[in-house]
Amino acid sequence: MPVALTDEQRNFRDAIRAFALRELGTRERRCELTAGFTRHHNEEIYRAMADNGWIGVGIPEQYGGSGGGTVEMCVLLEEATYGRVPFAGYGTSRIVAGPFERFGTEAQKHEVLTAIASGAVEAIAMSEPEAGSDVANIKTFADRRNGSFVVNGHKTWISNAHLAAHMLVVLRTTRTDNKHEGLTMLWVPTDAVGVEIRPIELMGGAEVNDIYLTDVEVPANALVGQVDQAWTQLMSGLNGERLILASVMLGLARRAFDDIVAYVKERRQFGRPIGSFQALRHRIADLAVEIEATKLLVYDVAATIDGDPRGMFPREASMAKLKATEVAKRTALEGMQMMGGYGYASEYDMEGAVRSALVSTIYGGTSEIQREIISKTYGL
Protein backbone atom coordinates (compact mmCIF):
# COMPACT_ATOMS: atom_id res chain seq x y z
CA MET A 1 0.00 0.00 0.00
CA PRO A 2 1.33 3.52 -0.78
CA VAL A 3 1.92 5.80 2.21
CA ALA A 4 2.31 9.09 0.33
CA LEU A 5 -0.47 11.59 1.02
CA THR A 6 -2.69 12.88 -1.76
CA ASP A 7 -2.90 16.59 -2.50
CA GLU A 8 -6.19 16.75 -0.63
CA GLN A 9 -4.71 15.00 2.40
CA ARG A 10 -1.70 17.32 2.40
CA ASN A 11 -4.00 20.34 2.28
CA PHE A 12 -5.89 18.90 5.23
CA ARG A 13 -2.62 18.44 7.13
CA ASP A 14 -1.52 22.00 6.34
CA ALA A 15 -4.86 23.40 7.53
CA ILE A 16 -4.47 21.66 10.89
CA ARG A 17 -0.91 22.96 11.22
CA ALA A 18 -2.03 26.51 10.49
CA PHE A 19 -4.90 26.22 12.99
CA ALA A 20 -2.61 24.94 15.73
CA LEU A 21 -0.06 27.67 15.11
CA ARG A 22 -2.72 30.36 15.07
CA GLU A 23 -4.69 29.21 18.10
CA LEU A 24 -1.94 27.68 20.24
CA GLY A 25 1.26 29.19 18.93
CA THR A 26 2.62 30.33 22.30
CA ARG A 27 3.14 28.53 25.58
CA GLU A 28 1.20 31.28 27.34
CA ARG A 29 -1.83 30.64 25.13
CA ARG A 30 -1.61 26.89 25.67
CA CYS A 31 -1.39 27.46 29.41
CA GLU A 32 -4.51 29.62 29.29
CA LEU A 33 -6.52 27.10 27.29
CA THR A 34 -5.59 24.17 29.52
CA ALA A 35 -5.91 25.74 32.98
CA GLY A 36 -2.19 25.63 33.56
CA PHE A 37 -1.67 22.41 31.59
CA THR A 38 -3.96 20.44 33.91
CA ARG A 39 -6.76 19.92 31.37
CA HIS A 40 -6.23 18.03 28.16
CA HIS A 41 -9.42 19.08 26.41
CA ASN A 42 -10.69 22.55 25.60
CA GLU A 43 -14.33 22.83 24.53
CA GLU A 44 -13.84 26.07 22.60
CA ILE A 45 -11.03 24.63 20.50
CA TYR A 46 -12.89 21.35 20.00
CA ARG A 47 -16.02 23.10 18.75
CA ALA A 48 -13.96 25.14 16.33
CA MET A 49 -12.45 21.93 14.97
CA ALA A 50 -15.93 20.44 14.65
CA ASP A 51 -17.12 23.55 12.79
CA ASN A 52 -14.25 23.01 10.36
CA GLY A 53 -15.53 19.48 9.75
CA TRP A 54 -12.42 17.87 11.21
CA ILE A 55 -14.04 15.99 14.09
CA GLY A 56 -16.35 14.34 11.56
CA VAL A 57 -13.44 12.91 9.54
CA GLY A 58 -14.01 9.21 8.98
CA ILE A 59 -17.74 9.45 9.73
CA PRO A 60 -20.02 8.95 6.71
CA GLU A 61 -21.64 12.09 5.37
CA GLN A 62 -25.17 10.69 5.79
CA TYR A 63 -24.55 10.70 9.55
CA GLY A 64 -23.21 14.23 9.74
CA GLY A 65 -19.58 13.43 9.09
CA SER A 66 -17.21 14.80 6.49
CA GLY A 67 -16.18 11.47 5.00
CA GLY A 68 -12.62 10.40 4.51
CA GLY A 69 -11.03 7.30 5.97
CA THR A 70 -8.44 5.97 8.36
CA VAL A 71 -5.55 7.83 6.74
CA GLU A 72 -7.35 11.17 7.21
CA MET A 73 -8.07 10.28 10.82
CA CYS A 74 -4.37 9.56 11.39
CA VAL A 75 -3.43 12.87 9.78
CA LEU A 76 -5.75 14.71 12.16
CA LEU A 77 -4.46 12.89 15.24
CA GLU A 78 -0.80 13.21 14.33
CA GLU A 79 -0.87 16.87 13.33
CA ALA A 80 -3.12 18.08 16.13
CA THR A 81 -0.97 16.29 18.70
CA TYR A 82 2.17 17.73 17.12
CA GLY A 83 0.55 21.18 17.40
CA ARG A 84 -0.28 20.53 21.08
CA VAL A 85 -4.02 20.96 20.46
CA PRO A 86 -6.02 20.13 23.63
CA PHE A 87 -8.57 17.82 22.05
CA ALA A 88 -8.26 14.69 24.19
CA GLY A 89 -11.96 13.97 23.80
CA TYR A 90 -11.51 13.08 20.14
CA GLY A 91 -9.78 9.75 20.69
CA THR A 92 -12.45 8.21 22.90
CA SER A 93 -15.22 9.72 20.77
CA ARG A 94 -13.76 8.14 17.65
CA ILE A 95 -13.40 4.80 19.44
CA VAL A 96 -17.08 4.97 20.43
CA ALA A 97 -18.11 5.85 16.88
CA GLY A 98 -16.77 2.52 15.62
CA PRO A 99 -19.27 0.18 17.33
CA PHE A 100 -22.19 2.40 16.30
CA GLU A 101 -21.00 2.46 12.67
CA ARG A 102 -20.66 -1.33 12.59
CA PHE A 103 -23.47 -2.52 14.87
CA GLY A 104 -25.81 0.37 15.66
CA THR A 105 -29.33 0.76 14.38
CA GLU A 106 -30.04 3.50 11.86
CA ALA A 107 -31.63 5.58 14.61
CA GLN A 108 -28.55 5.14 16.82
CA LYS A 109 -26.20 6.05 13.98
CA HIS A 110 -28.07 9.24 13.22
CA GLU A 111 -28.17 10.23 16.89
CA VAL A 112 -24.69 9.28 18.04
CA LEU A 113 -22.53 9.77 14.96
CA THR A 114 -24.12 13.13 14.19
CA ALA A 115 -23.45 14.26 17.76
CA ILE A 116 -19.81 13.15 17.58
CA ALA A 117 -19.25 14.92 14.26
CA SER A 118 -20.80 18.07 15.77
CA GLY A 119 -18.35 18.07 18.66
CA ALA A 120 -19.92 15.92 21.37
CA VAL A 121 -17.40 14.06 23.51
CA GLU A 122 -18.10 10.39 24.19
CA ALA A 123 -16.49 7.85 26.53
CA ILE A 124 -16.10 4.08 26.54
CA ALA A 125 -16.09 2.16 29.83
CA MET A 126 -14.35 -1.21 29.65
CA SER A 127 -11.64 -1.44 32.33
CA GLU A 128 -12.40 -2.58 35.87
CA PRO A 129 -10.23 -3.14 38.95
CA GLU A 130 -9.68 -6.76 37.89
CA ALA A 131 -10.23 -6.31 34.14
CA GLY A 132 -7.39 -4.29 32.64
CA SER A 133 -5.15 -6.30 30.37
CA ASP A 134 -7.58 -9.18 31.00
CA VAL A 135 -10.50 -7.29 29.47
CA ALA A 136 -12.80 -10.32 29.38
CA ASN A 137 -12.73 -10.57 33.18
CA ILE A 138 -15.51 -7.97 33.39
CA LYS A 139 -17.81 -8.21 36.41
CA THR A 140 -20.16 -5.25 35.91
CA PHE A 141 -23.55 -6.85 35.33
CA ALA A 142 -26.85 -5.86 33.77
CA ASP A 143 -30.09 -7.61 34.75
CA ARG A 144 -33.03 -7.47 32.40
CA ARG A 145 -36.14 -6.20 34.15
CA ASN A 146 -39.44 -5.12 32.62
CA GLY A 147 -37.91 -4.55 29.21
CA SER A 148 -34.98 -2.50 30.55
CA PHE A 149 -31.42 -3.16 31.70
CA VAL A 150 -30.42 -2.50 35.32
CA VAL A 151 -26.66 -2.06 35.68
CA ASN A 152 -24.43 -2.51 38.73
CA GLY A 153 -20.65 -2.41 38.86
CA HIS A 154 -17.44 -0.43 39.04
CA LYS A 155 -15.43 0.82 36.07
CA THR A 156 -12.01 2.44 36.43
CA TRP A 157 -9.46 4.42 34.39
CA ILE A 158 -12.26 5.67 32.14
CA SER A 159 -10.99 8.51 29.96
CA ASN A 160 -13.14 11.61 29.44
CA ALA A 161 -16.23 10.35 31.29
CA HIS A 162 -16.31 13.72 33.07
CA LEU A 163 -16.64 15.44 29.68
CA ALA A 164 -19.13 13.05 28.09
CA ALA A 165 -22.91 13.01 28.02
CA HIS A 166 -22.88 9.23 27.48
CA MET A 167 -20.66 6.21 28.01
CA LEU A 168 -20.55 3.04 25.97
CA VAL A 169 -20.40 0.53 28.84
CA VAL A 170 -19.11 -2.98 28.24
CA LEU A 171 -20.66 -5.30 30.79
CA ARG A 172 -21.88 -8.81 31.42
CA THR A 173 -25.45 -9.91 30.77
CA THR A 174 -24.93 -13.67 31.10
CA ARG A 175 -22.61 -15.59 33.42
CA THR A 176 -20.94 -18.55 31.72
CA ASP A 177 -17.82 -20.65 32.22
CA ASN A 178 -16.33 -18.95 29.17
CA LYS A 179 -15.55 -15.35 30.19
CA HIS A 180 -15.46 -14.26 26.55
CA GLU A 181 -19.14 -15.05 26.24
CA GLY A 182 -22.06 -13.15 27.75
CA LEU A 183 -20.70 -9.61 27.25
CA THR A 184 -22.91 -6.77 26.00
CA MET A 185 -22.54 -3.07 25.16
CA LEU A 186 -25.01 -0.50 26.51
CA TRP A 187 -25.27 3.23 25.86
CA VAL A 188 -25.56 4.85 29.30
CA PRO A 189 -26.13 8.57 30.03
CA THR A 190 -23.53 9.92 32.45
CA ASP A 191 -26.26 11.85 34.29
CA ALA A 192 -28.48 8.80 34.80
CA VAL A 193 -29.67 8.08 38.33
CA GLY A 194 -27.15 5.79 40.01
CA VAL A 195 -24.10 6.91 37.98
CA GLU A 196 -21.26 8.40 40.03
CA ILE A 197 -18.11 9.74 38.36
CA ARG A 198 -15.03 10.29 40.51
CA PRO A 199 -11.93 11.81 38.87
CA ILE A 200 -8.61 10.03 39.44
CA GLU A 201 -5.86 12.56 40.04
CA LEU A 202 -2.78 11.97 37.90
CA MET A 203 0.53 13.70 37.37
CA GLY A 204 -0.48 16.78 35.44
CA GLY A 205 -4.23 16.81 36.02
CA ALA A 206 -7.27 14.55 35.88
CA GLU A 207 -8.47 12.95 32.66
CA VAL A 208 -9.52 9.47 33.82
CA ASN A 209 -12.23 8.44 36.23
CA ASP A 210 -13.72 5.81 38.48
CA ILE A 211 -17.32 5.07 37.51
CA TYR A 212 -19.74 3.59 40.06
CA LEU A 213 -22.98 2.18 38.65
CA THR A 214 -25.69 1.44 41.21
CA ASP A 215 -29.05 0.16 39.95
CA VAL A 216 -28.70 2.27 36.80
CA GLU A 217 -31.74 1.65 34.61
CA VAL A 218 -31.46 2.11 30.85
CA PRO A 219 -34.05 1.25 28.19
CA ALA A 220 -33.83 -1.66 25.79
CA ASN A 221 -32.88 0.66 22.91
CA ALA A 222 -29.62 1.44 24.75
CA LEU A 223 -28.34 -1.91 23.48
CA VAL A 224 -25.61 -1.57 20.85
CA GLY A 225 -25.35 -4.65 18.66
CA GLN A 226 -26.48 -7.95 20.08
CA VAL A 227 -26.91 -9.16 23.65
CA ASP A 228 -24.04 -11.42 24.81
CA GLN A 229 -22.00 -10.77 21.62
CA ALA A 230 -19.87 -7.80 22.71
CA TRP A 231 -16.58 -9.70 22.76
CA THR A 232 -16.71 -10.35 19.03
CA GLN A 233 -17.92 -6.81 18.44
CA LEU A 234 -15.10 -5.37 20.53
CA MET A 235 -12.42 -7.39 18.79
CA SER A 236 -13.52 -5.97 15.45
CA GLY A 237 -12.83 -2.45 16.71
CA LEU A 238 -9.72 -2.72 18.87
CA ASN A 239 -7.46 -2.44 15.84
CA GLY A 240 -8.89 1.01 15.17
CA GLU A 241 -8.32 2.01 18.79
CA ARG A 242 -4.69 0.94 18.60
CA LEU A 243 -4.15 2.95 15.43
CA ILE A 244 -5.68 6.01 17.09
CA LEU A 245 -3.20 5.72 19.95
CA ALA A 246 -0.33 5.09 17.53
CA SER A 247 -1.14 8.25 15.55
CA VAL A 248 -1.28 10.36 18.71
CA MET A 249 2.09 9.08 19.88
CA LEU A 250 3.61 9.59 16.43
CA GLY A 251 2.61 13.25 16.71
CA LEU A 252 4.00 13.48 20.22
CA ALA A 253 7.30 11.88 19.19
CA ARG A 254 7.69 14.34 16.32
CA ARG A 255 6.92 17.26 18.61
CA ALA A 256 9.39 16.15 21.27
CA PHE A 257 12.05 15.54 18.62
CA ASP A 258 11.69 19.00 17.10
CA ASP A 259 11.82 20.55 20.57
CA ILE A 260 15.02 18.63 21.30
CA VAL A 261 16.68 19.78 18.07
CA ALA A 262 15.73 23.41 18.70
CA TYR A 263 17.09 23.23 22.24
CA VAL A 264 20.46 21.63 21.44
CA LYS A 265 21.07 24.18 18.71
CA GLU A 266 20.67 27.04 21.19
CA ARG A 267 21.98 25.65 24.48
CA ARG A 268 25.73 26.29 24.81
CA GLN A 269 28.25 24.54 27.03
CA PHE A 270 32.04 24.56 26.84
CA GLY A 271 31.80 27.44 24.38
CA ARG A 272 29.62 25.81 21.71
CA PRO A 273 26.08 24.49 21.11
CA ILE A 274 25.56 21.14 22.80
CA GLY A 275 24.12 19.79 19.54
CA SER A 276 27.63 19.93 18.10
CA PHE A 277 28.81 17.15 20.42
CA GLN A 278 28.92 13.76 18.77
CA ALA A 279 27.23 11.99 21.68
CA LEU A 280 24.07 14.06 21.19
CA ARG A 281 24.24 14.24 17.39
CA HIS A 282 24.23 10.45 17.08
CA ARG A 283 21.38 10.00 19.55
CA ILE A 284 19.33 12.54 17.62
CA ALA A 285 20.11 10.75 14.36
CA ASP A 286 18.89 7.47 15.85
CA LEU A 287 15.65 9.10 17.02
CA ALA A 288 15.08 10.60 13.57
CA VAL A 289 15.34 7.17 11.97
CA GLU A 290 12.99 5.60 14.52
CA ILE A 291 10.35 8.31 14.07
CA GLU A 292 10.48 8.06 10.28
CA ALA A 293 10.11 4.26 10.46
CA THR A 294 7.17 4.68 12.83
CA LYS A 295 5.45 7.10 10.49
CA LEU A 296 5.80 4.71 7.56
CA LEU A 297 4.37 1.86 9.65
CA VAL A 298 1.41 3.86 10.99
CA TYR A 299 0.34 5.15 7.60
CA ASP A 300 0.90 1.82 5.89
CA VAL A 301 -1.48 0.18 8.41
CA ALA A 302 -3.98 3.00 7.92
CA ALA A 303 -3.87 2.58 4.14
CA THR A 304 -4.26 -1.19 4.54
CA ILE A 305 -7.39 -0.71 6.66
CA ASP A 306 -8.83 1.76 4.15
CA GLY A 307 -8.21 -0.82 1.44
CA ASP A 308 -10.19 -3.45 3.38
CA PRO A 309 -12.47 -1.74 5.94
CA ARG A 310 -14.00 -5.04 7.04
CA GLY A 311 -10.64 -6.76 7.49
CA MET A 312 -9.08 -7.71 10.81
CA PHE A 313 -5.46 -6.65 11.16
CA PRO A 314 -4.43 -7.54 14.73
CA ARG A 315 -0.74 -8.01 13.90
CA GLU A 316 -0.40 -4.75 11.99
CA ALA A 317 -2.40 -2.62 14.43
CA SER A 318 -0.52 -4.01 17.44
CA MET A 319 2.79 -3.39 15.68
CA ALA A 320 1.83 0.22 15.05
CA LYS A 321 0.69 0.77 18.64
CA LEU A 322 3.76 -0.92 20.10
CA LYS A 323 6.23 0.89 17.86
CA ALA A 324 4.71 4.35 18.16
CA THR A 325 4.29 4.32 21.93
CA GLU A 326 7.75 2.92 22.61
CA VAL A 327 9.36 5.41 20.22
CA ALA A 328 7.43 8.29 21.80
CA LYS A 329 8.58 7.19 25.24
CA ARG A 330 12.20 6.89 24.12
CA THR A 331 12.12 10.28 22.37
CA ALA A 332 10.61 12.11 25.34
CA LEU A 333 13.01 10.53 27.83
CA GLU A 334 15.99 11.30 25.57
CA GLY A 335 14.71 14.85 25.30
CA MET A 336 14.54 15.22 29.05
CA GLN A 337 18.06 13.80 29.41
CA MET A 338 19.52 16.12 26.77
CA MET A 339 17.81 19.15 28.30
CA GLY A 340 19.09 18.29 31.75
CA GLY A 341 17.26 20.06 34.55
CA TYR A 342 15.33 22.15 32.04
CA GLY A 343 13.72 19.02 30.66
CA TYR A 344 12.25 18.37 34.10
CA ALA A 345 11.12 21.97 34.64
CA SER A 346 7.43 22.77 34.23
CA GLU A 347 8.28 25.91 32.23
CA TYR A 348 9.18 23.65 29.30
CA ASP A 349 6.93 21.25 27.39
CA MET A 350 9.24 18.24 27.62
CA GLU A 351 8.15 17.11 31.08
CA GLY A 352 4.55 16.97 29.85
CA ALA A 353 5.65 14.95 26.83
CA VAL A 354 7.35 12.48 29.16
CA ARG A 355 4.20 12.01 31.23
CA SER A 356 2.04 11.49 28.16
CA ALA A 357 4.51 9.12 26.51
CA LEU A 358 5.07 6.94 29.56
CA VAL A 359 1.39 6.18 30.07
CA SER A 360 0.89 5.45 26.37
CA THR A 361 2.66 2.11 26.78
CA ILE A 362 0.01 1.14 29.35
CA TYR A 363 -3.41 2.25 28.11
CA GLY A 364 -5.12 0.68 25.11
CA GLY A 365 -3.24 -2.55 25.78
CA THR A 366 0.21 -2.53 27.35
CA SER A 367 3.35 -3.05 25.31
CA GLU A 368 3.54 -6.55 26.77
CA ILE A 369 0.02 -7.32 25.56
CA GLN A 370 0.86 -6.00 22.08
CA ARG A 371 3.87 -8.30 21.94
CA GLU A 372 1.67 -11.23 22.97
CA ILE A 373 -0.81 -10.43 20.20
CA ILE A 374 1.92 -10.09 17.59
CA SER A 375 3.64 -13.32 18.60
CA LYS A 376 0.36 -15.27 18.52
CA THR A 377 -0.23 -14.20 14.92
CA TYR A 378 2.92 -16.19 14.10
CA GLY A 379 1.51 -19.29 15.74
CA LEU A 380 3.63 -18.99 18.88
Order of helices and strands: HHHHHHEEEEEEEEHEEHHHHH
CATH architecture of the largest domain: Up-down Bundle
| Largest β sheet strand count, sense and barrel closure | 4 strands, mixed
Question: CATH superfamily name of the largest domain?
Answer: Butyryl-CoA Dehydrogenase, subunit A, domain 3
Number of domains: 3
* CATH fold naming of the largest domain: Butyryl-CoA Dehydrogenase, subunit A, domain 3
Q: How far is the first residue's CA from the last residue's CA?
A: 27 Å
Relative strand content: 15-25%
Rounded average pLDDT: 93
Structural class: alpha+beta
Query: What's the helix count?
Result: 12
In which range does the helix fraction lie?
40-55%
- Number of E-state strands: 10
Poorly predicted runs:
none
Strand order of the largest sheet: 1-4-5-8
Assigned CATH class of the largest domain: Mainly Alpha
Shape: globular
Brief descriptors of the model:
380 residues; alpha+beta; Butyryl-Coa Dehydrogenase, subunit A, domain 1; Butyryl-CoA Dehydrogenase, subunit A, domain 2; Butyryl-CoA Dehydrogenase, subunit A, domain 3; 3 domains; four-stranded mixed beta sheet; four-stranded antiparallel beta sheet; 12 helices; globular
3D structure, described in words:
With 380 residues, the chain is an alpha+beta fold. 51% of the residues lie in helices and 17% in strands. It has three domains: 7-117, Butyryl-Coa Dehydrogenase, subunit A, domain 1 (Orthogonal Bundle), CATH 1.10.540; 123-228, Butyryl-CoA Dehydrogenase, subunit A, domain 2; 232-376, Up-down Bundle (Butyryl-CoA Dehydrogenase, subunit A, domain 3), CATH 1.20.140. The strands form three sheets. The protein has a four-stranded mixed beta sheet, with helices on one face. Strand 2 and strand 3 (148-159) form a beta hairpin. Helix 7 (230-266) packs antiparallel against helix 11 (350-360). The longest helix has 37 residues, at 230-266.
